[in-house]
Amino acid sequence: MGFFKGMSFPLASITVYNSVVFGFFSNTQRLISKYRYGDGRHPCGMMDLTLASMLTGLLSVGLGAPVDLVKIRLQMQTQVVLAENLNLASSLSSGSNMPLRSIAMPSQSLYRGPIHCINGGSPGPLPGAGAMILRDVPGYTLYFIPYTLFCNLLKPDASSNLHPGAIWLAGGLAGSISWVTATPADVVKSRLQADAALQRKYKGIVHCIVHSYRTEGAQVFFRGASVNAIRGFPMSSTMFLTYELSLQFFRSF
């Protein structure tokens, strides 16, 4: 069950999150086309796509930051409490000459649930939101633009509909590209969100970047890049395929 910690909150919110993100991106393109070309169905240019993608990235931070914060902290809370118990055990054993394992306290949940987990139960800005902006704004730009380019390359001609297999491939490749390039910012974001609520290690984004680089080297910002690439392909291919088929279905009425 350790592999499924923190899953309930993202699972409950992912439908709303993806619906809002893809719906916002689609409607933003339509508004830009209507404003620039006088026709909401006019194909967007590269600059139009970039603007729509960046605005979608900003929106995703407001939706995704609380979800990511809860997920990271619920996944890490057992590790945090165990570390605190080991420190306590070490201080006690130094005076009693008892082995560490015999006095280590059992782990307890640091948070009572998802709602209490947000900000550790205290008000204020969401930790990691700034780093999430650095991840999602360029991340969504490198998500929707490669997808559009791959679709144009795989489309037989401008008037025909794209084959579902081509949509699946374009979406998967775009997802892998987006997640790999977003990995450095994702590392910083995750570290800030996992930071202990009562005894913080990082003062902010810049301090987290500098401290991580000095202690672990530049390679630390690319940890998990291969996993992100593998995870991004099936996840994104499924989302884009569902999105495009849904649009085709509703436009048929």
What's the layout of helices and strands?
Blueprint lengths: L7 H30 L8 H51 L3 H4 L10 H4 L11 H26 L9 H18 L1 H12 L10 H12 L8 H27 L2
3D structure, described in words:
This is Solute carrier family 25 member 48. One of its GO terms (cellular component) is mitochondrial membrane. Keywords: Membrane, Mitochondrion, Repeat, Transmembrane, Transmembrane helix, Transport. Helix content is 73%, strand content 0%. The protein has helices at 8-37, 46-96, 100-103, 114-117, 129-154, 164-181, 183-194, 205-216, 225-251. Helix 6 packs antiparallel against helix 9. The termini are far apart. Mean pLDDT is 80; it is low at 80-107.
First and last CA, distance? 45 Å
Q: CATH architecture, please?
A: Alpha/alpha barrel
The whole-number mean of residue pLDDT values reads: 80
Helix content: over 70%
CATH topology: Mitochondrial carrier fold
Concise account of the structure shown:
73% of the residues lie in helices and 0% in strands. It has 253 residues and is mainly alpha-helical. It has a single domain, classed as Mitochondrial carrier fold (Alpha/alpha barrel).
Keywords for this entry:
9 helices, 253 residues, 73% helix, Mitochondrial carrier fold, mainly alpha
